[in-house]
Design brief:
By secondary structure, the chain is an alpha+beta fold. Helix content is about 25%, strand content about 35%. The chain has 4 domains: about 35 residues, no CATH class; about 80 residues, Thrombin, subunit H (Beta Barrel); about 110 residues, Trypsin-like serine proteases (Thrombin, subunit H, Beta Barrel); about 110 residues, PDZ domain (Pdz3 Domain). The protein contains 9 helices and 21 strands. The radius of gyration is 27 Å and the shape is globular.
Length: about 375
């Protein structure tokens, strides 16, 4: 079968030559064809596709590892362990995997593409984004580089790499199905900007890299939908870059906090009409941490937060998104100083009226 572009070109030529001087119009077309050269055939395109995947497998494959974890926090080494994938991010042994592969475990063993088994220690993990950072006890290791997940386009070729079901160095391909998805982590927090793709994933792929055709890691595979085909999800690489930086520097991820415990609530219809609210749901403050940012600003239990910086707060996810919405963009991630100084104007319902409070979030733990 001819390539679609070739068919289109032939049809266009037929239409143009249907009237007038055929010889006069044939000459420039012949010259144009010789200048551009022959158009690629389907076989050429398939070869280019295959070569792209081969290049990625050769380049990134050596950086992909199997991660085995055993023992639990109580010290029982014989307890059932976890098994997943990961990839090396630096030549001195820093490796990224999923939090659910290593969380709560005490000992870790990484197996390289060549079959070498290397001990590893947990630098830190972040269940809120299902990411973790290990450090292998080795040097001069092959490593992969992070790409820009914000530049991903729907339909773009992606390659999933890992060790599903114990089969080492497995490669599968697909395309980006959607960007900007959201899913719940194990601790209930919403993970933003999830990449949905069609590259087949199986148990053991968790923590492995999702790579673009240039060999750049654009996601970390984390989940599939049971009984579904062609629906996989990856944590975006921009989120991973921010998380890795926090774990290397602090051993944990520090997030801005208001110093409150809150829950979603429904606002009475009367108040929605009287206060001209755009949502009939909001966030009720259940507890205010003493000497925390909210307490210093004057917030009280049972205040109902309806907006922050003039953005609607309809649920707790909206509040999390506002506090850490720049998590997936390391270039825009606030420094500790900026995070401490960035003031939010919180609008709450108290005594049937709107009151605004300036609140300066603090990094958790400070």
């Amino acid at each position: 079968m001819a390539h679609p572009l070739t068919i289109f070109s032939r049809l266009a030529s037929t239409d143009e030559n249907s009237g007038g001087d055929r010889d006069a119009q044939a000459a420039p077309q012949s010259g144009e064809s010789s200048a551009q050269g022959p158009r690629p055939t389907d076989a050429d395109l398939l070869d280019a596709y295959s070569q792209a995947v081969i290049n990625v497998a050769r380049t990134v494959g050596p950086a992909v590892i199997t991660v085995a974890s055993r023992g639990d926090s109580s010290g029982r080494n014989g307890s059932a362990g976890g098994m997943g994938s990961g990839f090396l991010l630096t030549p001195d042994g820093y490796a990224v995997t999923n939090s659910h592969v290593v969380h709560g475990r005490r000992s870790f063993l990484a197996t390289t593409e060549d079959g070498d088994r290397v001990g590893a220690e947990l630098v830190g993990d972040d269940p809120a984004t299902d990411l973790a950072l290990l450090r292998l006890v080795a040097r001069d290791l092959p490593y992969a580089t992070l790409g820009d997940s914000e530049a991903l386009c729907v339909g773009q070729l992606v390659i999933a790499m890992g060790n599903p079901l114990g089969f080492r160095s497995t490669v599968s391909t697909g395309v980006v199905s959607a960007v900007g998805r959201a899913m719940r982590s194990e601790d209930g927090r919403l993970i933003e900007n999830i990449v949905q793709h069609t590259a087949p994933l199986n148990p053991g792929n968790s923590g492995g890299p999702l790579v673009d055709s240039r060999g750049r890691v654009v996601g970390i595979n984390t989940a599939v939908i049971a009984m579904a085909q062609g629906i996989g999800f990856s944590i975006p690489s921009n989120t991973a870059a921010w998380i890795v930086g926090e774990l290397v520097a602090h051993g944990k991820v520090r997030r801005p906090s208001l110093g409150i415990t809150a829950t979603a609530t429904r606002v009475a219809r009367r108040l929605v009409r009287e206060l001209d609210l755009l949502s009939d749901t909001a966030v009720e403050v259940m507890e205010v941490v003493p000497q925390g940012p909210a307490a210093a600003a004057g917030l009280r239990p049972h205040d109902i937060i309806v907006a922050a910086n003039d953005r609607i707060i309809a649920n707790v996810d909206d509040l999390h998104r506002l506090l850490s919405g720049r998590l997936a963009a390391p270039a825009a991630a606030p420094s500790p100083t900026e995070a401490n100084r960035s003031e939010l104007e919180i609008s709450v319902i108290r005594d049937d009226r709107i009151i605004k409070f300036p609140v300066t979030p603090r990094l958790a733990g400070q």
